Amino acid sequence: MHIKKLLIATALTAAVAAPAMAATTNVAEGKSVFGIGQFGGAALSSITDGFFSSTPALWNADAASWKSTGNVATDPFIVIDLGANTTFNHLVLQGAADANYAIKYATGGLNFTTAWVANGTGGNGLQTWDSGSIDSITARYIGIYASGGLGNFSVSEFQAFQTGTGGTAPIPEPETYALMGLGLVGLVAARMRRRNGSVG
């Protein structure tokens, strides 16, 4: 009887907790990256490899780098292709600390809308910015634009997450409801047995 109660409690805990546990997925990891303009330093693909620079004291360590043309309209920028329209609501960027970065998005084509701006604090080396939870965005392309500083820019890592907070709540799977129902049936059955056993 003790094992049944334990199983019932476990089933109920899993059923109640499952909808609340949201997976955090870096939807940009391993995705295709290309640049509009001229780039140097590390390969552009390293921007979505899931690893931050191990030497953040250097502004261009393990980072793709580029220079301003002096005209924002013709400055190089980075594009990450998520492969399909994908939802995200949390952004992280590691880049040169003396620059500002506008993270933009587009569902098709390259007509970008700004999602978040990371402002540099100045100084040498790399800085890591975290947007925290933002309104959910669904897009295929993410653009990284830079400005400010000395006109030398770099990005070592970019991550875009879909989490269960700040956006659409996760929808429980049918198995979750089945498990919860089974747990409730077990609780009712255990209660009825206890009641019937204590009367006789």
From TrEMBL:
It holds the Pfam family F5_F8_type_C. Gene3D superfamilies: Galactose-binding domain-like. PROSITE patterns: FA58C_3. InterPro entries: FA58C, Galactose-bd-like_sf, Ice-binding_C. Keywords: Signal. Residues 1-22 form the signal peptide. Residues 20-163 form the F5/8 type C domain. This is PEP-CTERM motif protein. It comes from Amantichitinum ursilacus.
